[in-house]
Design goal:
By secondary structure, the chain is of the alpha/beta class. The protein contains 8 helices and 11 strands. It has helices spanning 10-21, 55-60, 71-77, 117-126, 142-145, 160-164, 184-189, 191-213, and strands at 2-7, 37-40, 45-50, 66-70, 82-86, 92-99, 110-114, 131-135, 151-156, 167-176, 178-182. A 6-stranded mixed β-sheet has the order 2-3-1-4-11-5. A 5-stranded mixed β-sheet has the order 8-7-9-6-10. The relative contact order is 0.20.
Length: 214
């Protein structure tokens, strides 16, 4: 039985549909209840519904064998897991944004508001730019509007929220999508089952990309 850490929400729904399409369905997951664990013994899978930001924690600490998590979370938390596959779902990008009239002052550190503090630090370190980090957990776009920060580092999907709050994207520096990750111990002891699942997922992703390109 493979234990799969599945993120709750829209991404989790997309991932489950992908997994179900390649032979790992678990129909009880659609039952109207508040259960967090669902299994299909015939297909050899047990789904664990977890908060998206916790998926990598469950996998790293062997509460789950495999999981699906955004590249942003992997970059921010740097868990000790194997990243086997880019599923191409939940695509967005990590961006730097600021007010429309923002002009950078090179004589002082940039004030950066973000919940992705490690990603922001790594990005600006690569630019040899000093920054002051302001850690926020939500409504990041408010920070430059109210003068709390010069810029924000955040995930952008459509860009509507940025535009509606009269901000502009200064830079796109990290493409984000859902990744298939594996616990290192599980990869050794459940290797055949994990490789089979990864192979089926990879084939399905390639087929989807071909259809999208056609």
């Amino acid at each position: 039985m493979l234990n799969i850490a599945l993120p709750k929400g829209r991404l989790g729904d997309q991932v489950y549909e992908l997994l179900a399409s390649v032979g790992y369905d678990c129909k009880s997951i659609y039952d109207e209840n508040r259960k967090l664990v669902f299994e299909n013994e015939a297909n050899g899978v047990r789904y664990l519904l977890v908060k998206p930001s916790d998926v990598a924690i469950y996998v790293e600490h062997h509460a789950a064998d495999v999981g699906i998590v955004g590249k942003d979370i992997l970059m921010e938390s740097n868990p000790d897991v194997y990243e086997l596959l880019d599923l191409g779902l939940g695509k967005c990008r990590m961006c730097v944004a600021a007010k429309e009239d923002y002009v950078e002052d090179r004589d002082r550190p940039v004030r950066v508001a973000t919940k992705f503090t490690n990603i922001a630090k790594e990005h600006y370190a690569a630019l040899s730019r000093d920054i002051d980090i302001i850690k926020l957990n939500g409504s990041i776009e408010l920070a430059p509007i109210l003068g709390l920060s010069d810029v924000i580092v955040d995930i952008v999907e459509s860009g509507n929220t940025i535009r509606e709050n009269h901000l502009k994207i200064l830079e796109e520096f990290l493409p984000i999508s859902a990744r298939f990750i594996v616990n290192k111990g599980s990869f050794e002891f459940k290797n055949e089952a994990i490789r089979t699942m990864a192979g089926r997922l990879s084939a399905a992703v390639q087929e989807r990309e071909k259809r999208e390109e056609a």
